[in-house]
Amino acid sequence: MAEKERKLTKAEARRVENFAVLSERLQSEGYKVTKCDVSAAKVNIYTLVLFIPFGIVYWLLFRLTGTPLINIEVIDYFDNVAVLIAVAIGIYVVSSAIMIVVHEALHGLTWALFCKNRFQSIQFGIIPRNLMAYCTCLEPLDFKAYLVGAMMPLVVLGFGVFAVSLITGSLYWFLFANFATLGAGGDMSIVLMLLGHRQALLLDHPTEPGFYAFEKTT
After folding, report:
1. Which residue stretches of 29-117 are H helix?
2. pLDDT band at 3, cuts 50/70/90?
3. Which of 14, 70, 77, 109 is the least buried, fewest Cβ under 10 Å from its Cβ?
4. What are the strands, taking DSSP E only, across 128-180?
5. Cα–Cα distance between 10 and 90 in angstroms, integer?
6. Greatest alpha-carbon span in the chain
7. How many domains, the chain?
8. CA 87 to CA 172: how far, in whole Å?
């Protein structure tokens, strides 16, 4: 009940209005609508289940580069353990911020390529109640377009950066790829739901993680 009663932001309210117009039009054209949303609890479960096999494969392949997971030279460089921890936390915070921005930008850039109105149909923001960044598309997309946009952060920041770590033997890029893959858990939960709607037009939920599938009934 709390979710339904929460006050919408101005951007969310506009998206709700936009969704209502598009939904009414599509249903009048003979489309049946199905709501496909996912709770935070399910996202966490999917994230762990999907990350474990990727993490194992990443670790096994990275071990072939011969790069130690614990760099003694780096540890010895810092005389003070507190300084080392502070530097590590700083790198993590900055890297996470960059990762989040690029992650959402990849969604937006990819979906914009399939939109009639290009970037005018893409919105970015932060959900106030949990400070979660998001990218949303205001146009209905077909299965292929929606899937490519949903997968792009994992492909680029996860698989792509991991490939860089193998080529360079960089522990930093190895860890970055692991965190990026972990961060794509929500996207993968959406992808799993997408697979049941291959013939549908897919429209982002205006206020929550998930989408609506519009499928022809005639």
Report:
1. 40-63, 72-77, 81-114
2. very low
3. 70
4. 132-137
5. 34
6. 72
7. 1
8. 13
